[in-house]
Design goal:
The complex is a heterodimer of chains A (264) and B (316). By secondary structure, chain A is mainly α. Chain A is built from 12 helices and no strands. In chain B, helix 3 crosses helix 4 (111-121). The chains are: A mainly alpha (264), B alpha/beta (316).
Amino acid sequence: MELQRIQTIIDKEWAEVFKNRLVLFTVTLLPLLFTVLPLGLLFSMRSSGSISGDVADLPPSMLEACSQLAALDCFQIYIVNQFLVLYMMMPLFIPIAIAAYSVVGEKTTRSLEPLLATPISTEELLAGKSLAAVIPAIGATWAAFALFVAGALLIGVAPAVVANLLSPVWWAAVFVVGPLLSGVAVNIALIVSSRVSDPRAAEQIAGVVIVPLIAVLFGQLAGVIILNVQFMLIAIGVLAGLNVALIIAGARLFQREAILTKWK
Amino acid sequence: MINVESLTKEFPNKPQPLVAVDNLSFSVEEGEVFGFLGPNGAGKTTTVRMLCALIGPTRGRATINGLAVGRDDTAIRQTVGILTETPGMYDRLSAEKNLTIFARLYGVKDVTGQVQKYLRMLGLWERRLDEAGSFSKGMRQKLAIARALLHEPKVLFLDEPTSGLDPEAAKRVRDFIAELKTEGRTIFLCTHNLDEADRLCARIAIFKTRLLTVDTPANLRRRMFGRRVVFHLRLADDALAGAARQAPFVREVSRVDNKLVVTLDDPEADNPALVRLLVAAGAEVQFVGEVRHSLEDIYLQFIRETPTASEPVSAA
């Protein structure tokens, strides 16, 4: 694998993708929304100084963690933790649109044939396209998280809430699980993109990747799934393995000949 | 430079595979401009894709500059330049950016220099910062030719380089190909434009799934129609036609008004003797010219004689 070729593909993808306002909108709006929304909730809770519900209604796992905390702090941690899944989802939403369009888009504009006629290998091409989709997503997620923590400190939330944000669970979610999920989503999107001939179909099929994560979100809300260190470690192991499998499968399923001769 | 032996490409299809290229064999010398002519769906693009190591052959062998298709594919892609049937540019990127990307992918050392060289050579320098999507069809085609040349390939495959261009743009592209010819590059030219092939190519292959013939345009004319010379006389009659028929090298004579149309094998050698013979027989020769058959006549004769094969759409 030649790094220069991978860099060239990344450069090309970014030059093209970021000229698309819709993609720029997706990359910036979602992280901003996921940052402003919890901050707004924290701010309003802190301003009112009261909570509208009963701490006893929180899931039992939450109650255990909150045993030493004031009711308001406990509620704030509970609210903040609901956004944990969204922070894991963020690097998944952003690159799907980029990656799904990546191969099929080149098919429809007929730019894939000259590209495949260069000495670039399938692995280099897929690595370039994956990284081009993953890097902005991870960058945006990390920037949003930094903004969220800074905002929380600025609002003056309780130290327990800040400590929760900087806990191993959050760090694992934002810095490891999120990027791994992003890799899984992008690899699936690329596989789909190289097998279909319509960009919209590629985007829709690749979007299905989000479904399991939505299940996690609802599982957490219902108190069935607890996002603790153990969960994160299992998720990291599974996702890392899935990424490796998808990279291998992606390279095998990307059949240059079929792509060139079967496109319409 | 290009050697092809029994190259065959079949595409999986039910109930039986579709044969796009059948048992194709030919060779192209270094520095030669080789014309590859055939109707739509004949398998020209499939052949080019196989020779550029984009798709693999089902059977047979092909080597490009000593590199074997199927074994040295990456090296082949580094050695050849290809102008694909459709330019396929990154429309949102500038002409310069488009070329820079490909120069880097081909591992060109002086990326800026090469990009500048070909943008200038093809008259696109002033528009280098404009998006490729804003270019006319002719400009896009020139940009695609520049892209194919960035890494100074030894072999250049041009698939319908003037297809869909207006006459002026087509002429510019054709003139540029003629310039490339002088640089000693081997050029494999797929075209529908028979006049273009006649002007540019040293040899021509006529192809319709199978190779129908390959030769120089002059030899093809000779083989198909012989060479015919027309003698314009002040007054032609049957006696003069009969006198011409007496010459041992004359194959056929016909009279049309005051013209004698004579079929010869070697007009350059036989014309002086024939002129002397006609003058001796009392003819007053006004001027002599060769009846030239167009390549189109030859092409159509070959294509019409070949039964239509069932070919896949993708083999176009």
